[in-house]
Amino acid sequence: MQERIIYFDHAATTPLKKEVLDEMMPYLTEQYGNPSTIYKLGREAKKAIELARERVAKALNAEVQEIFFTSGGTESDNWALKGVAFANKDKGKHIITTTIEHHAVLHPLKYLEGLGFEVTYVPVEPNGIVDPQKVKEAIREDTILISVMLANNEIGTIQPVKEIAKIAKERRIIVHTDAVQAVGQIPVDVKDLGVDLLSLSAHKFYGPKGVGALYIKKGTKIHPFSHGGAQERNRRAGTENVAGIVGLGKAIELATANLTEYASRLQKLRDKLIDGVLSKIDYVRLNGDRYNRLPSNANFSFEFIEGESLLLMLDMKGIAASSGSACTSGSLDPSHVLLAIGLEHEVAHGSLRITLGEDNTEEDIDYLLEVLPEIVSRLREMSPLYEKVKKGGR
Fold it and tell me: Where do the annotations place pyridoxal 5'-phosphate binding (predicted)?
């Protein structure tokens, strides 16, 4: 039994870095001023917020005035979708997205459908990547917004957002991307991508929970998120989460400082894991494109087992992993992402998502490859379907 927990669920959340906490601490203790006040305590808090805004803008290659702080990725997605829809409904009520988006995108869109907006859900290819041509074919005269995630939170596939944005710009359609999983893992440059809005969340790259940001390109027509104060240039009322914002700024600065080296190390571990699982275990498939995926992500489906049992047995071995999105872990329904790439319900239920982070080592991968085949074998011994297959009766 391992003495420490081997943490393989960095797509759900990451630990807070000490350097980030150290920078946050003064704003949780002696630097407690309200940023909207004019005396020194307030001015110091305001200065800290603006430094964080500069750090986020630099990391994304954005302008400082285009960065707005939120409570996280879900709020950023909601603001982008609803804000654009309400502000541009005089031009049209049609929105385009994909079938594999996070629920923070899909649920607001369902809400907008209830208000009379129309949404086209473009299917992805079996490798988990959307075809830009299919997005183009979905565009109508009344299309006002296209929202496509930069990287999928479950299967890690990187989407052709740049190509989609280029298509959209020809028709003067606003483009939003949910980059919550991408920031801190791959280069994210809003100018290169050509997007109008981009969502991110601090706790995905070793920052604090409960704080995120929305990039809004200058000139984008969007409604304010909330009313009641002049914070965030009159677009998001409410006293700012100063310590959280400070933490976000520091975390994104650290996350983008050595990105190439970090991603390269994770990719080597990821590839070793994928090769090991596919060679050691039968009736298993890798979900998502083999190479066009986040450097940290490996998602497998094992036939003839149930994912929750797999996770519990891994936990008993000191390994923390997941079967998909942390936001839907209480649901008994199979992953909509895995169904969207063509998996059958029973196969989708036997999924395992491994997402790596900076503390993971080659020894961690070796240990997982040692215990995982044993666990899968034990679980399959309980399956009458597997017994039938072994006897040649598939």
Answer: 73-74, 153, 181, 201-203, 239
Closest CA to 77 of 112, 30, 33: 112
> Residue 61 class from Cβ within 10 Å (0-12 exposed, 13-18 middle, 19+ buried)?
middle
> 2 pLDDT exceeds 50?
no
Measured at the CA of 393, the angle between CA 392 and CA 394, to 5 degrees, comes to: 100
- Is there a binding annotation on residue 181? yes
Catalytic positions are: 327
Query: What are the two backbone dihedrals, phi and then psi, of residue 187, each rounded to the nearest 5 degrees?
Result: -60, 135
Does 102 count as an annotated binding residue?
A: no
pTM value is 0.95
For residue 190, CA distances in Å to 195, 200, 230 come to: 6, 12, 26
Name the percent of the chain lying above pLDDT 90. Answer: 92
pLDDT tens digits along 192-211: 999 999 999 999 999 999 99
Domains and CATH numbers, the chain: 18-257 (3.40.640.10), 258-391 (3.90.1150.10)
At residue 96, the 3 state secondary structure works out as strand
Instruction: Report the pLDDT averaged over residues 256-277.
Output: 97
Tell whether 330 is in a known binding site. no
Residue 322 labeled ligand binder: no
